[in-house]
Amino acid sequence: YVKQQGGDDVFWYNNSLLELNADHLQLEYELKKATNEGQFIAYYQPKFALDTGDISGFEALVRWQHPIRGLLQPIDFIDAILSHKLSLELFSQVATQIAEQLTIWQKLGFDQHICINADAAEFSNPEFFDVVSNLLAQHQIAAHQLHIEVTESSLMKRHSNVKEQLNSLKALGVCLALDDFGTGYASLSYLQEYPFDFIKIDKSFISKITADKTQRAIVNAILALAEALDMQVIAEGIENEQQRDLLLAMGCQYGQGYWFGKPMSAEVTTNMLMQQHLSKNSND
Ligand code: C2E
Ligand code: MG
Ligand code: MG
Ligand code: MG
After folding, report:
1. How confident is the prediction for the chain on average, in pLDDT?
2. Side-chain half-sphere of 160: how many Cα atoms within 13 Å?
3. Cβ(119) – ligand 1 distance below 6 Å
4. Pairwise CA distance, residues 94 & 170, whole Å
5. 172 — phi, psi (to 5°)?
C-alpha cells in the first residue's frame, strides 16, 4: 500500500478494506469494536462568512482512527455503518464529541456552532430525537449551536418519520441544513416539504462556477430561490480565491472548502481559533 500524508488526512491506497468488505463478519466485528472503543473521531472544517471573512461555524466530519489501518475517511466505512445499523451509535458518539468541544470552546471564549451530518435513515429511528434532546440537556450548550445536515440523496430514499423528526428538532431550536443540494432530482420539493434553515450547494457546482456559464446560472437560481424562501446558502468545496470572489459577488452568504481550510483534528482547530483571536485583537 501507499500511505500518503497530506495536509488534511492520511489516505490509504490498498486493498485491505476491500478484502475487509468481502469478509462481512470481520467488518462487523471491527465496526462494533470501533464503536465500543471510541475509535470514531470528529474532525472539524471551518465555515466562513464570505463578506467579512470570519469563521461562522464548523462542520464535524467523522474519521475512523483504526488501530492498524490508520486514519480512515468516511467513504471507507459510512456505508458499512449504515448497513450494519450502527448509524445511531455513530451519530451519538460524534454528537457527544461535538457537545464536549463546544463546551471547551465556550470556556475559552469562543461562541461557535457545529454542524453534524446525519443520514435520513437515522430519522426513522424513534430514538434519534431522544439522543439529541438528551445531549442538549446534559451539556451547557444552546440548541442553536447544534446544526444537523442531511443529504438530499438520503432524503430521496423516503424513510418514514423524516418530516416529523425534522419538525421536532426544529422546534427544539436545532438548525437544519440540506446538504449536497442539486445532486438529487427532487430538490425543489424538499425545500417546500422540510423545515431547512440552510442550503448547502454541492461542490460539483462550485468547482466549475468560474468557467461554466450553465453552472453559474444554476447557482444563481439556487441563490434566488433561497432568498425567496428565507433560507441561507453555504457554498461547499471552494478551492480558490476566484470562486470565493464570484460567490460573494453573486450574494452567497457562507462558504466552505479547502481554500479556507481542510477538516482538522479538534486540537488543531482549537489552535486555529486561538491564533485567529490573537491576530484579530492585535489588529484592533
Ligand atoms: P459532506 O457532508 O458533503 O462533506 C463534505 C466533504 O467534502 C468532506 O469529505 C470534506 O472533507 C470534503 N471537502 C471539503 N472542502 C472541500 C474542497 O474544497 N474540495 C473537495 N474536493 N472536497 C472538499 P469527507 O470528510 O470525506 O466526508 C464525506 C462525506 O461523508 C460527507 O460529505 C458526509 O456526507 C459523510 N459524513 C462525514 N461525516 C459523517 C458523519 O459523522 N455521519 C454521517 N452519517 N455521514 C458523515
Ligand atoms: Mg455535510
Ligand atoms: Mg456536502
Ligand atoms: Mg457529500
Report:
1. 90
2. 2
3. yes
4. 20
5. -75, -20
